[in-house]
Amino acid sequence: MKRVKLVVAYDGTNYHGWQLQPGAVTIEQVLNETLTELLGEPIAVIGASRTDSGVHALGNVAVFDTEHRMPGEKVCFALNQRLPADIRIQSSCEVPDGWHPRRCPCVKTYEYRILNRSVELPQQRLYTAFCRFPADVERMRRGAAFLVGEHDFKSFCNVRTQAESTVRRVYDIQVERDAGDVITIRIRGNGFLYNMVRIIAGTLLKTGMGQMEPEAVRTALEARDRQAAGPTAPARGLTLVGIEYL
């Protein structure tokens, strides 16, 4: 028996998130079914990040156990021959038996992308959230600065979260606008709560539009009340960029 690690990229548009759900197609389901067919034995992957419906990934991580003789580094190529075009394994390798993608210390990086212009662009519709009202990036940066560090992010998570603790550490938040009117919020942290990045994005966008003062982000954080923060931004703007294990 050996344990194989996968780095998984996917377009989440046509999936109901990562985690298995009755009556819905998910990334985890497709990986399990395809690996089972490839290796000829029941396979159940363990994912590092249970991304929501419609969320994308460039570098989610999963592991599975197998008795098959195929070398770990060869699984990547063989699996990609069978997966749908919107899921691709970026790399595969063997890891120690006890290695678990959710229990090992890591840094996760997410990006949230907002198309900020007067008219939508069809080419961006699946990978950005659209906002027609001008957003001030500098105001967004000022608001974001209050979220850096270790805090209780209870105001910035879905009320249905099952996390034992709502304390998380955010290492860095960058807000940039490119020449194509796409605002990218890039956030790095040691872990994120249910909907946390999307709520941060919705709050910073509200700040950028002048509907909320940058200092109000700190007030919302200290309130530890979901009602104090901004709205949950749409899933399609969010991408899990990668996971760095320490």
From TrEMBL:
SUPFAM superfamilies: Pseudouridine synthase. It catalyses: uridine(38/39/40) in tRNA = pseudouridine(38/39/40) in tRNA. Gene3D superfamilies: Pseudouridine synthase I, catalytic domain, C-terminal subdomain (3.30.70.660), Pseudouridine synthase I, catalytic domain, N-terminal subdomain (3.30.70.580). The keyword Isomerase applies. Its EC number is 5.4.99.12. One of its GO terms (biological process) is tRNA pseudouridine synthesis. One of its GO terms (molecular function) is tRNA pseudouridine(38-40) synthase activity. Residues 7-101, 146-245 form the Pseudouridine synthase I TruA alpha/beta domain. It comes from the Bacteria. Keywords: Isomerase, tRNA processing. Substrate binds at residue 110. It is an enzyme of class 5 (isomerase). InterPro entries: PsdUridine_synth_cat_dom_sf, PsdUridine_synth_TruA, PsdUridine_synth_TruA_a/b_dom, PsdUridine_synth_TruA_C, TruA/RsuA/RluB/E/F_N. The active site is at residue 52. The keyword Membrane does not apply. NCBIfam families: hisT_truA (TIGR00071). Homodimer. Belongs to the tRNA pseudouridine synthase TruA family. Formation of pseudouridine at positions 38, 39 and 40 in the anticodon stem and loop of transfer RNAs. This is tRNA pseudouridine synthase A. The gene is truA.
